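#onboarding

Welcome to the new folks! Below is a worked example of what a typical request in this channel looks like: someone posts a single protein sequence, and someone else replies with the predicted structure as tokens. Don't worry about understanding the tokens yet, we'll cover that in week two.

Example request:
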Amino acid sequence: MSSSFNSSSSVGAVFDNLSPYSRLCNCKSKMIIQISKQPKSYARRFFSCPNGREGVGGCGFFLWFDPPEDNNVRNEIDSSVILKCELVELKKAMEKAMENVSSQIMKLNVSVEVYQKAIAPELKLLKYVVFLMFFVAVMFVSKAM
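Example response:
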């Protein structure tokens, strides 16, 4: 059941002014007031069954409660919701970028290891060649003296 209830008084006063019968949900339990955390209806208040949804112990009663709008408050809520949604999207994008960077780093580390193993024999040979060239140079210098 989905509808709106508009009033010029506070949530508590509206709830207290309801007749005892209308304070009860379909399973005859006293309704509770909750605040939506869903992005499309963030911070919107509603009456609901205290026992939960239908099929999990409750009757699933649901009724939006929309007090009179204060444009400044509504604008603040809208701005906050938009910022929160943008932050959530930025967080997801950053997490994905970090996963990509981590993946690339792992690939580079593997590549470096592969190249190091591939050139290790050549490096060893190069060290011997440099040593021999130095030795030969020293021999020539010592003969020339």
